[in-house]
UniProtKB/TrEMBL annotation:
Protein name: Efflux RND transporter periplasmic adaptor subunit
Organism: Symploca sp. SIO1C4
Location (main, coarse): membrane
One term of GO molecular function: efflux transmembrane transporter activity
Annotated Multidrug resistance protein MdtA-like barrel-sandwich hybrid domain residues: 68-250
Coiled coil (residue ranges): 115-215
Subcellular location: Cell membrane
Database matches in InterPro entries: MdtA-like_b-barrel, MdtA-like_BSH, RND_pump_MFP
This protein's GO CC annotations: efflux pump complex
Organismal lineage: Bacteria, Bacillati, Cyanobacteriota, Cyanophyceae, Coleofasciculales
Amino acid sequence: MHKFGVPLSGKFLGTLLTLPFLTSACGGGEPPLAAGTPPGVPVKLETVVPSTIKESSEFVGSLEAKQRVDLRAETEGRITRIFANSGDKVTADTPIMELRLERSRAQLNAEIANVNVARAARDNAKAELKEAKAEKLSAQAEVELQNEDFERISMLVSQGALPEQRLDQVRRDRNRAVAELEASQERIEADRASLDEANATLVQAQANVEVATEDLQDNKIVAPIAGIVGDIELKVGDYVDIGDTITTITQNQSLDLRLSIPLEKAEQLRVGLPVELVSYQKDEVIVTGGISFISPQVDQQVQGILIKASFPNPGGKLRDEQLVRARVIWEERPGVLIPTAAISRLGGQNFVYVAATPEASEQEQSQAGEAQQIAQQKPVKLGAIQGNKYQVLEGVEPGEKIVVSGILNLSDGTPILSESSSSSPVR
């Protein structure tokens, strides 16, 4: 029973005597709150833990596949079958479509005719060379005969048996025979060159026949690389010419991102520097890659440095030519991050509410069962924002519990009740 150091008036004593009846009338089985203790405000608490601070810059760029092929027709013909559908995953040499190569058949017939013409020209060149060689043999025999006549007549003229005019005539005949021998030799050389040319023409014509035959047999357009088939706009029955684009084959397993980095960041660039791709909707990191190329030249138009960052794409979520947000991570260091929802502002100063336990007497603790937590307002110095969290430079330390919900209902010293779902740490 409590003892009071002041005398009780009759009115106050009556009030005290009435309290047990009021309690029974309410039917409450819970012990009453300690005198002067207001009910706590429900809040969510999170424990501050060490985090990684990232100094970064954001850019926008377009992804490009490392391997992408525009599949073009190498022959002309009418489409008879289409084996693949847009979006199919195919391996190298997988047939995409089949053509009926009508013009290739005509080309083959023309090439066969060219072979026959070339063979006839080659045979004619052989015959002419053979004839030229025979003429040379006859000319050689004539030269030998004229030499013998010249020696014999020359001797008779020197003996006075024949006049000098006879020797002059024999000399002219010998010179004519020598000239005909030289002419036959030149004809042989010309005919041999003609034969070589005819042989080369025949070989080329035969090669053209082989190519035309292969073109006729190779009537399927196949994928040169493994990848995903792009849009196929052509239909069965369409006619395609040489060079017409059929579709694309794209490998999305790995992608490159081209970015222009400002010159003031040039000294921080290095191959392997982390680059994150960030979702537009949720500001979440989709995938992390790294810088794989740094241009040795400066783009004079934008005064920037071209870099390429490479990213894996095992799930195929990223696409060739997709516009993405990229975050270049210049530096990583330990620090403290807290949610933006935990920050309150007053008079230009940033604050957080930290869960604290006020000092209480043994009598109050025994009545309450356990110490009542209160929200203690603490000023903080903030750094850069990272996602949906602020870097804290001063004010809170790892291990402290901060209020991350319901801060609009709080003031310094407000009693709080921690929600059961608030066990996750702040990272």
